[in-house]
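Appendix B, Record 12. Input sequence as logged:
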Amino acid sequence: GGEGAGGAVDVRAVGELRRPVALGEIKKAAAAGEVEGMKDFALIRQARLSVMPVPVEVWDWVCEMGGGFVQDGEVGEEEAEG
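Logged structural output:
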């Protein structure tokens, strides 16, 4: 379709970051050129996207900034000790 045409995407949560990564952190990294492809990342260019492709380099950076990615159902170290 043309502009404004909608689409459907199936999504589901597969886990979570240990800490949230703020949009400001992502924009700062993009401005500094820290991560390949970050300046062209849709989240930086268009403010109100809810589903978008994420380049691998950007995903890896976000996971690192978030303290690691914990997949759904895994027990983290702090949970295992408690």
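Strands lie at 15-17, 69-71.
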